[in-house]
Design brief:
This protein is 39% helix and 23% strand. The chain is globular. The chain starts with a helix and ends in a 7-residue tail after the last helix.
Length: 246
């Protein structure tokens, strides 16, 4: 009984390490991320691609209300997976950071600086009593000094930089797919194709263009752009993926 009581203490206390050096609440937050539908990011020579599975569970639900892609600044976008409410808190924080940087220094915030600011905020909630970790992972993509950058934030508050990555459900399968298919010389259209084919591999019935959100930031304009459903349908047709037409 004493061992069970100790186990529960490590489970419930975010500020308490277990004897083997684990923070169970952070690990549980990672499990919450896995319960969300997938979001992916791909870095190419020409820019960054962000895509997210936004399928709805009911025909009565408005698709536009499923928010998984977010514009942070003209040159930065974020894709999320996990608890939507937690994501919104971090998205609002990121937007404030971008605005403050512009007002204070008169220049756009760097993608790496923004990511580390977000992860610093996340990390505070892993060592504060009476709080819980954020149950969300973010993909932060943008252009910095003319170069595409792509980062991941983890519920532990650790930033990672990637060439291509996935967060949320089926993460391992998507990472395996990207490791096999990613090339350093991809252009932006190639990155879009790779992202959509990745999401198609983990869907039970193939990818549905109406259930995908797609955003890009290209090196030439350094502008975040959200793609319309008709454009996504064209990309899906060109990639020869998706469910069979009836």
């Amino acid at each position: 009984m004493q061992g069970n009581a100790q186990q529960q203490a490590y489970d419930r206390g975010i500020t308490i390490f277990s004897p083997d050096g684990r923070l169970y609440q952070v690990e549980y937050a990672r499990e919450a991320v896995k319960r969300g539908t997938a979001s992916v990011g791909v870095r190419t020579e020409d820019g960054v691609v962000l895509a997210a599975d936004t399928r709805v569970r009911s025909p009565l639900l408005e698709r536009e209300s499923v928010e998984k892609l977010h514009k942070i600044d003209d040159h930065i976008g974020i894709a999320s997976a996990g608890h939507v409410a937690d994501a919104r808190q971090l998205i609002d924080f990121a937007r404030r950071q971008a605005q403050v940087n512009q007002l204070r220094y008169g220049e756009p915030i760097g993608v790496e600086s923004l990511t580390k600011g977000i992860t610093d905020q996340i990390q505070q909630y892993t060592q504060t009593g009476g709080a819980r970790p954020f149950g969300v992972a973010l993909i932060v993509g943008g252009i910095e000094n003319g170069e595409p950058r792509l980062f991941e934030t983890d519920p532990s508050g650790t930033p990672y930089e990637w060439q291509a990555l996935a967060v949320g459900g089926n993460r391992e399968d998507l990472i395996d797919f990207f490791e096999a298919e990613y090339r350093d010389d991809l252009d932006l259209d190639g990155g879009i194709d790779l992202a959509l084919r990745g999401l198609d591999t983990v869907g039970d019935e193939g990818i549905d263009p109406e259930g995908v959100a797609l955003g890009t930031i290209d090196v030439e304009t350094e502008q975040y752009r959200r793609h319309e459903t008709e454009e996504i349908k064209q990309y899906v047709e060109e990639a020869d993926i998706g469910g069979d037409e009836e």
